[in-house]
Amino acid sequence: MSLIVQKFGGSSVRDKERLYRAAQRAVDTYQKGNQVVVVVSAQGNTTDSLIKKAQEIGDTPPGREMDVLLSTGEQISMALMAMAISGLGCPAISLTGWQAGIKTCETHQNARIRHIDTTRIREELAKGNIVVVAGFQGIDEQENITTLGRGGSDSTAVALAEALLADRCQIFTDVEGIYTADPQVVEEAVKLTSISYDEMLKLASMGAKVLHDRSVAMARRGNVVLEVLSSITESEGTVVQENSNSAAPHLQGVTADRTVVRYCIKGLNRESGGLYTFIEELAQAGIRPDLLGQNEEGEIFFTAAHSKREEINRILKKRRLHIKEEDIWAKITAVGQQLTAFPKLKKEFFEVLHEAEIPWEDSWMEEDRFSVLVLRERANDAVHALHQVVLRHHLK
Ligand code: ADP
Ligand code: ASP
Ligand code: MG
Predict the structure, then answer these.
(1) What atom in ligand 2 is closest to the CA of residue 149?
(2) Does ligand 1 come within 6 angstroms of the Cβ of 184?
(3) CA torsion angle for 100, 234, 202, 190 (degrees, to 10)?
(4) Which residues line ligand 2 (CB under 6 A)?
(5) What is the pLDDT of residues 178-188, one digit of tens each?
(6) This prediction's pTM
(7) Closest ligand relative to 153 C-alpha
(8) How far apart are CA 187 and CA 237, in angstroms?
(9) What is the DSSP letter of 42?
(10) Average pLDDT over every residue of 258-267
(11) Rounded to the nearest whole angstrom, what is the distance from the C-alpha of residue 305 to the centroid of ligand 2?
């Protein structure tokens, strides 16, 4: 008997029809003789609507109360899913994050799973139930409800698969797998049969929201067999797995991060060590500056996630640094392996951007990625352009 974790995202449970379709997938898996744990996200745009509701009340809602609010989305789905599974004739029980033993750190709205006490889930599985767990939530040491950051239900699924030593973790979504680019943006994008943990982690951390980046890091650490597939069609998905060492240099995919902010700072001296201590301070606050450089006037520039804006401003203010903040860019990243083995790759990327008449700002090239900053309104065009180069150097 195998144990399989199946996660259904927001669009896969958005209405009665989709919910029953997802429930049927779980029931089919169960009736083949497997134990099944289902993880659900909030239906459709529920989480966005809840955030809007909170904003109607006030500009800076307390993080604790935001998590109480946001966790209700998944709680609706889990009950409806358990009802649908029961309606299809299978025993099912739903559990919230805390009932399922999911213990997290105390960082509201961006908590990390620390530990899962699987006792209750195992008991329910032993009784013959399909266990439906609310994604995206847990409790901290003080028993406050926490949430795991947007897209965090993927991490719930992988963490459960790891803790339960599941044979497989299946992430069902609204596309048929992981593609060379977002298939909703690039029609010619190609579905991948498999992708390495490292490449998927890079794609996810650079903006590809098909998987929550932490879920990929967790899967890599726990060697969880992770599969992304459609909740709508029956076609084969994409497996995320360990790298095969023999892989030749190649490009695997391209993605866009539309949430970066670019900072230009005057008065930080690279030579005197000021830059070094500044980066140290950012790192301590969990901020990783990217596309870091210096222009001829001595200004330092870098990009960082929009969510870190307040923190960065606090650090800059404390140092009395003059900054310019630009919230107009998107970072486009092509991901692959041994990229420096292609001597003209950078030139190829700039050529396709030039052909598409897309101006670009900073860029960065290393072994596993090429990133470039373009105006946000040209992000999709730039993804299309770089995707041509990805297909040229993609291993079939
Ligand atoms: P869910 O609600 O199931 O968690 P998400 O919207 O979080 O679904 O993630 C699925 C979406 O990820 C797809 O609809 C697709 O637009 C987007 N996506 C971005 N990059 C990729 C990629 N490289 N391959 C597949 N999907 C991608
Ligand atoms: N409902 C949460 C979100 O919209 C978590 C998830 O979907 O994974 O971000
Ligand atoms: Mg998601």
Answers:
(1) 9
(2) yes
(3) -170
(4) 9-10, 41-42, 47, 73, 135-136, 150-153
(5) 999 999 999 99
(6) 0.95
(7) 2
(8) 17
(9) P
(10) 91
(11) 19
210 Cβ inside 6 Å of ligand 1: yes
Q: How far is the CA of 3 from the centre of ligand 2 (A)?
A: 24
Residue nearest to atom 9 of ligand 1 (CA): 210
Q: What number of other Cβ atoms are within 10 A of residue 198's Cβ?
A: 18
- pLDDT, position 275: 80
Count of Cβ atoms closer than 10 Å to residue 84 Cβ: 22
Answer yes or no: is pLDDT of 155 > 80.
Answer: yes
Torsion of CA 162, 163, 165, 170, to 10 degrees: -50
Instruction: Give bridge partners of residue 305 from the DSSP assignment.
Output: 260
What is the average pLDDT across 156-170? 98
> What pLDDT does residue 270 have?
64
Residue closest by Cα to atom 12 of ligand 1: 210
- Report pLDDT for 272: 62
Cβ-contact 395, 248 below 8 angstroms? yes
Average pLDDT of the segment spanning 188-200: 96
**Is residue 12 in contact with ligand 1, taking CB distance under 6 Å?**
yes
CA distances 270 to 37, 191, 296, Å, are 52, 44, 13
For the chain, give the percent of residues with pLDDT over 90: 85
